[in-house]
Design goal:
single chain; alpha/beta; FAD/NAD(P)-binding domain; 2 domains; six-stranded mixed beta sheet; 8 helices; 22 strands; 23% helix; elongated; binds flavin-adenine dinucleotide
Amino acid sequence: MESEIITTDMIIIGTGPVGLFAIFEAGLLGLKCHLIDNLDRPGGQCTELYPEKPIYDIPSRPHVTGQQLVEDLMTQASPFDPTFHLGQQAETLEKMASGHWRVTTTRGVIIDAPIIVVAVGAGSFVPKKPPYGKRAEFEQKSIDYAVHKMEKYRDKRLVIVGGGDSALDWAITLFPLAKRVTLIHRRREFRGSQDSVQRLHDLTTAGSLDVVYGNITDLIGDDGQLSKVAVTLLDGEIQHIDCDYLLPFMGLKVKLGPIAEWGLNLDKKHVAVDPETFETTQQGIYAIGDVCTYPGKIKLILTGFYEAAVMTRSAFRYAYPDRKITAGYTTTNSALQQRLGITDK
Ligand SMILES: Cc1cc2nc3c(=O)[nH]c(=O)nc-3n(C[C@H](O)[C@H](O)[C@H](O)COP(=O)(O)OP(=O)(O)OC[C@H]3O[C@@H](n4cnc5c(N)ncnc54)[C@H](O)[C@@H]3O)c2cc1C
């Protein structure tokens, strides 16, 4: 079956803080956005790398955590009804005869638009893969690095590996659904939040899930399907644990990925842009946030917000030269307020 082709005004690649703010700026001009992110939740570096750390240099916010900033950006963007395609990478880019661009994702979603916004930060966060000898043999059927559908794990024996927030959160979330969850960590101290560590402790004490301290040293199964993993415990003893699915959460690394092949003007893994428009060397393709470079660039969230505001206006003029731009203040302009869904002032 052929995939349906989605058409929109703007495709934003990357849902970090800068991509999220671009939805708001585009929405004020009446532009609809589809967003793509490799991760399964929006927020980029803020939610992946420092969700609970305070940021002190967002104008008018004396301090705000990475997670709270992302939640507020989502709320601010919500009147414009953006569509998110999460858990998939923007993989290929083609120029259509119409002059529009077409992006296809790693999950086969196809989107056409006159405007592409590259807001990919340092690139896609990709999972670090564990060094198990037979990993490739089981990767197709039995090893998952992200949870896309929890239902897949109903009544299954799950082995989760890691000591950070992702490993702890998924062990706690999946144990009511799974037949059995075993969390394996290479040392006794966890890096996850205090709340999660306490919850894990309560659940293991109650016998609801198992925690094993050691390293996986062998994968056992047939035809790509795991049946057990062998763990060398901290005291050297070997323990075999039943396993249908192995879920390693061993951190993320960042890779620029397919964007590097898109013919954009790259300067040391950054995309060179015109600082008056944030357009790249390809007409209709813009780059904002940490990924873009120009003389005087500062890699901060506030700079990315400014870039989003300038970029949307210049992209609007390029894509819709016959339409009038709605200029003015959100405080006083009723057309802007209508777009924001504000009915009483
Ligand atoms: C520990 C730490 C503390 C920080 N503190 C501050 C601070 O106090 N103040 C401040 O201003 N800045 C701070 N920063 C920097 C700030 O987080 C970045 O400037 C900001 O996140 C950049 O936003 P962005 O939207 O450009 O990119 P990112 O936040 O990096 O988001 C990019 C998104 O694009 C996605 N992506 C990449 N390639 C693809 C692809 N091909 N397909 C689909 N998705 C893709 C990624 O998965 C990611 O979600 C800090 C950074 C760190 C690591």
